[in-house]
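User: Fold this; tokens only.

Assistant: Input:
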Amino acid sequence: MKYKLLLTGNNKTVIGEFFTQMNFSFECLSTTDRYDDILNHMKYFHPDAFVYCLFRETSNDLKKFNNVDDVIFRQKLPIFVIGDPEECDTFTKAAPMMTVNMLQRPISTRNIEKEIVTFLDAKREIAEQEEQRQEQQDKEARERAEEEKKAQEKARREQELLETAAAVIAAGTVPNDDKRRKHILIVDDDSSVLKLVKGYLSQKYDVATAISGKVAMKFLETRKTDLVLLDYEMPVENGPAVLAKIRSDENTKMLPVVFLTGVTDKDKIQEVLSMKPQGYLLKPIEAERLFAAIDSVLVRKE
């Protein structure tokens, strides 16, 4: 890719060398020293650098060029000045506030090309690094925003679960009468499973349901149950984590827990069995096996 150079100055020989001998590295356009011409060429050509080729310019000639300094500065356009020591000194005095790269003659065409290309390559590399850094910052900002959004959504769902639990808990209130029916708490994140199992058990037991471990523990803080049917795979807290909480609480550590799950992985099953639940039933659920397991646990409890 060629760099674009906007050229001006009285040294037509050097300007011609840019077009004829440095055309492999540069795409060039020449302009006058008039303010309007320079601004229009900058606007439509979009140069990568400005090159002033000096030859006997007066201080008044150079002061006119000083007028475009603000525009060049805003566009972060590097300026190269080519001239002999006296001409370069005249330029510096005429434009003392302008930042330029001086290339003093005698200097070969090849070295002029090398100096400008090296400078612009370094400038481009810095710009690319800054762009990559900005892209990384933008990416990290998007990821933080996404994580925050997920956290807010998670908090909203948990709040909904707790609000739902209030109604579930109220519906599943267990009478304290010794002659009451036995009470079962079903914990499963699948509402269709909750509905199915509750349908089976309601003919014989009082039943409450919880759609997460968090809701189940909230229930157990204020209500009693005779047995917990616990799913293994649940979001946030799985079944083993909920069982660990039940066993660590003085008020619930003796509570019978039966896993009701589709998990058949031997390692996972072994992990659960090491926690000594009172049963482990595999889905799909068969009403006869379910009642037999529950009755067996409740008889042992009594």
